[in-house]
Amino acid sequence: MKIYETATAPNPRRVRMFLAEKGLLDQVEFIQVDIAKGENLTPEFVAMNPMKKVPVAVLDDGTSLAETMAICRYVEEAHPETPKLLGDSPKQKALIEQWLRWIDFYLMTPVGMCFQHTSGYFKDRMNCFPDYGQDCYGAAEKFLDFLNDHLKNNTYLLGDEFTAVDINAFATIAFARVVKLRIKDEQTHLQAWFDRINQRASAKV
Amino acid sequence: MKIYETATAPNPRRVRMFLAEKGLLDQVEFIQVDIAKGENLTPEFVAMNPMKKVPVAVLDDGTSLAETMAICRYVEEAHPETPKLLGDSPKQKALIEQWLRWIDFYLMTPVGMCFQHTSGYFKDRMNCFPDYGQDCYGAAEKFLDFLNDHLKNNTYLLGDEFTAVDINAFATIAFARVVKLRIKDEQTHLQAWFDRINQRASAKV
């Protein structure tokens, strides 16, 4: 498998951490795409992913696969011998899916929208609404309070079990520094969890 | 299983269609929640779903499960004897996940944001940015062109196989009428696909 990615972007980091936790990182060839220079807008890239986003995996049979969680799903299903990060029983798989959606919709999306609409990083290729971006900052800030409360009685976001939800929340919070959103001093449970994930070998990749 | 839902809202419709395609609709008790009156904001509802959204499933062991796709995932995994709507092989599961994300991020989210930011339906409980909402309309409109092109050579969104992706795209496009986004006369492939899905028994539930 090859993965086209941008090493500094948060979604590719989620995939690298997922692969590292599976012990499969060295089986993948990574190819860097400079999104600031628009290398994701070329006809060759758009043929792989019409949505023009990184990461994109190319499977050994040549199939292109876009979307972070689709790539993680493929890796989980194709390697049942590795640690399960998307759950085992129907109920656990569903609760993980619920949390993955919560992290996407209530943390990653608002942080990403805040970045895109207030930084001007992609202003050559989108309309920016800074007031909306600022409102998204508030939404993400509020969600961190929810996470902090939840982690008062949980080691990981799904309780005792480390899952892809921890990876996604961790990578998003780490990325949120670009919009100056950080864990607050009083959010001690969230900070302890963040430090716990940050000590894993997968957090370094 | 019980499902708390709002019959007129698009996400509950996705779950009902999913259950109908599985032949499991009559095994579920549905309880209506009036979101216009704020019945989703009560302490009892928030205890089931801190994100205050419908639908929410309550499993037979009392576990609350929020998020449309988490409920669908539970149903798929708990009933392996029913038609598979989320794929079978690792590759098919991953391609379906890719498409589910595309429908969520590039169609359902912009249509929903357009509705929320331009209609004022939830103006008592959110900040509205109408210019951003209008921009989202344009994004959703563009994605319908992409779907139309894709359907030129495909019966369903994943080719020959009806999947949850068709359910989600169909329910979203049907809902998009609230923001006056409709399939255009020249989008003949998209219209033919829409009519094909609309003829299924599950489209009536």
From TrEMBL, chains A, B:
Residues 89-205 form the GST C-terminal domain. It comes from the Bacteria. Pfam families: GST_C, GST_N_2. Residues 1-83 form the GST N-terminal domain. CDD domains: GST_N_GTT2_like (cd03051). InterPro entries: Glutathione-S-Trfase_C-like, Glutathione-S-Trfase_C_sf, Glutathione_S-Trfase, Glutathione_S-Trfase_N, GST_C, Gtt2-like_N, Thioredoxin-like_sf. This is Glutathione S-transferase family protein. It comes from Pseudidiomarina andamanensis.
